[in-house]
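Q: Got a minute? One more chain.
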Amino acid sequence: MPFSNHELFSQELDISQRIYLSPPHLSGEEQGFVREAFDTNWVAPLGPNVESFEREVCESTGAKAAVALSSGTAAIHLALRLLGVGPGDIVVCQSLTFAASANPILYQGAVPFFVDSEEASWNLCPNLLDEALSRLAAKGTPAKAVISVDILGQCADYDNLRTVCARHNVPLVQDAAEAMGSTHRGVAAGRQGAFGIYSFNGNKIITTSGGGMLLGDDPESIARARFLATQARDPAPHYQHTTFGYNYRLSNVLAGIGRGQLRVLGARVAARRANERLYRELLAGIPGVEFMPEAPWGISNRWLTHIQIDATKTPRNATSEDARLALEARNIESRPLWKPLHAQPVFAAAPTLLNGVADRLFERGLSLPSGSALTPPEIARVAAVIRETLAG
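A: Always. Here it is, folded:
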């Protein structure tokens, strides 16, 4: 570490430059692939960069097939359609996540059933999932699919989740939108379910500006997803459609950005993990502050460094919202943890099985600036505000 904690805290804190939560971090390699797209006039959707990006993601993750799409949400939507989810079907979904994990359930006219998290990873609880699937089966309305989410880059407990899903004969969709570069038992995140989903939104660990990917080990299913994502156009010289599709493919220009980003994925993961380690050092010893644990079954990309603030234990009884407002006043962006979907007005009528973990994590949670280009003095600037707010 090039700075000691004392040196970091003693530096002048310049609030004129805003510190963002998770801004894009380009490597320079992206320009070559984008320039090639322009030079060859492949600026329309599809093209060599798209095909190469899909192949290179497969090579990086070990997946047998992948299709590049306009968003991670589109990937979830296609996964549910491939699994035959339709009107009135029940899809069990993790509650502690962004709405994009569950919105595609509604696209298909299905019913979300929200299940709470467990403590080790903050992700879908296997025991509650087992109970939920058992209840649904006993009512004669078995779940059609399960959606787990790897929040903040940490993989869920897939050893147990897959066992539960197999016992109930329900397919598992893995929303690894935040977890590219993470691993579970040494296997790339996104490989643990029937389908895996990545997001390349501008705030993700690598970006294509906007985009996503659906991957899996059944090439025929991925080929079907590619067909549906291209307006379900039949192989005919004229425009013919035997089913309806979507305009979900990623453009060749954006895929070029993705190819350049993919080449530095390992470095981006290393940088974000280093950020989290430095935050731990600088915030050590503050009563009531805890960091997101790293589950023993994997390595998280630490997409966002996240802390929990228990106001009953902090010296000044300060809350996570107090810390967020103090950071914002110093021109620093931070964000509460996802408000659980069972507490969202749009899903107010959805059935649930809860244990209180998601609600507690939301109440106390705060995600800190975590960009891979963040410098140690910038992290110290963030930490100093938190220390001042919580401990005085």
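A: The two ends are 26 Å apart (CA to CA).
Q: Perfect, thanks.
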